[in-house]
Design a protein that fits this description.
169 residues; alpha/beta; Rossmann fold; binds adenosine-5'-diphosphate; binds magnesium ion
């Protein structure tokens, strides 16, 4: 499987599991998202951190592809949430909280209904509502590095990460 060669990750065996991957290009970010989508079960909460253009939406595209979504994936920058209710493994809600004024706006905007879901939540800019969100199953941070991205991840669930390609920690 040549696509595995696009990136490697290293993981720690202790809790919380932390890992680091180098994603050389956009295709690697898509691949990573797709693979992760095949590993984790609902309900799950994935925090996506990193500056504008870091690759959070790209990851989400890969994730939704992994869940069988064939259509386009729009960035929820203005809508704040895009629902994907008909995908494999149960609904996925993609949120982008960049424009949120604070955690108290979640209820006002009706987003707390989404947060109570038994589906998967992909949450860009979770820091905009820190303390008001469900705890993450996986906490991801994307950082520009050379022409690619370094991805840092933290999870309390080994199963979510165990099947990702990685070097022995
Ligand atoms: N691993 C990577 N290496 C280089 N470029 C990447 C990588 N992953 C994504 N990109 C590019 O970076 C940009 C990320 O945009 P986007 O995913 O919308 O970022 P964000 O949602 O974090 O603001 C896109 O142009 C995408 O092609
Ligand atoms: Mg985005």
């Amino acid at each position: 499987m040549t696509r595995l060669a696009r990136y490697t990750c290293s993981m720690t065996p202790s809790l919380p599991h932390t890992g680091s991957c180098f994603l050389a290009d956009e295709a690697a970010t898509l691949d990573f998202g797709e693979r992760l989508a095949l590993q984790i079960a609902s309900p799950a909460v994935i925090y996506l951190r990193g500056q504008l253009g870091a690759g959070k939406t790209t990851f989400s595209r890969g994730f939704l592809r992994g869940r069988g979504h064939m259509g386009s994936v729009k960035s929820p920058t203005y809508t704040l949430v895009e629902p994907y209710e008909e995908v494999l493994g149960g609904p996925v809600f993609h949120l982008d909280l960049y424009r949120l004024g604070g955690g108290q706006e979640l209820a006002y905007l009706g987003l707390d209904d989404y947060l109570a879901t038994r589906g998967v939540l992909l949450i860009e800019w979770p820091e905009r509502a820190e303390g008001e969100l469900p705890a993450p199953t996986i906490d991801l941070t994307l950082l520009p590095q050379a022409a690619g991205r370094t991805l840092k991840l933290m999870s309390v669930e080994a199963s979510a990460l165990a099947a990702l390609p990685h070097d022995a920690a």
